[in-house]
Automatic annotation (TrEMBL):
Residues 1-112, 201-238 are annotated as: Disordered. This is Involucrin. Residues 1-16, 24-36, 44-88, 95-112, 201-220 have a biased composition (Polar residues). It comes from Cricetulus griseus (Chinese hamster). It comes from the Eukaryota. InterPro entries: LRR_dom_sf (IPR032675).
Amino acid sequence: MDSLSVQSGDMDSVSVQRRDMDSLSVQSGDMDSVSVQRRDMDSLSVQSGDMDSVSVQSGDMDSLSVQSGNMDIVSVQSEDTDSVSVQSEDMDILSVQSGDMDSLSVQSGDLDSLSVQSGDLDSLSVQSGDLDSLSVQSGDLDSLSVQSGDLDSLSVQSGDLDSLSVQSGDLDSLSVQSGDLDSLSVQSGDLDSLSVQSGDLDSLSVQSGDMESLSVQSGDMDSVSVKSGDMESLQFGT
């Protein structure tokens, strides 16, 4: 299916099996369910409407864009997701299994749950919204930026977290297991809990906020800087 366009109406269900879907566009309407199996989905665009469920199995999803609407569930299994963009609304659940997600951008909305298993997350940017839960298992998180919003829970297992920046918001809980945390910067907000197990913490900077708990076990901590705030608890393991 090369091109599908819906204007000023709803699309309840689209299913593509063993074929490619090059372009899907929905304007001023809702899209309830899209399922692509064993093939690629190159471009999906939703403007001024909601997208409830998108599922891609054993294929690539190159570009997904949602403007002025909600995206409830996106699931990608066994392949790569190159670009996901959400503007002016919320994305509730995004799950990537056994594949990489190169770029994810959320503007003026919330990202409730993001899970990446057995793959890498190269770039994640959240502007003017909250990121409630982010879990990366058996893969790396290269760059994460949160501006004017909170990061409630971040868990990285069996992988590295290269760069994390939080501006004008709080970082409630960050856990890194069996991997390194290269750079963490929090500006104009609090860092409540940071735990690094079996890995190194290279650089941590907190400006104009408090750091309540920092725990490093079985690894090195190279640099910690707290400006214009308090550091309440610091613990080193063996």
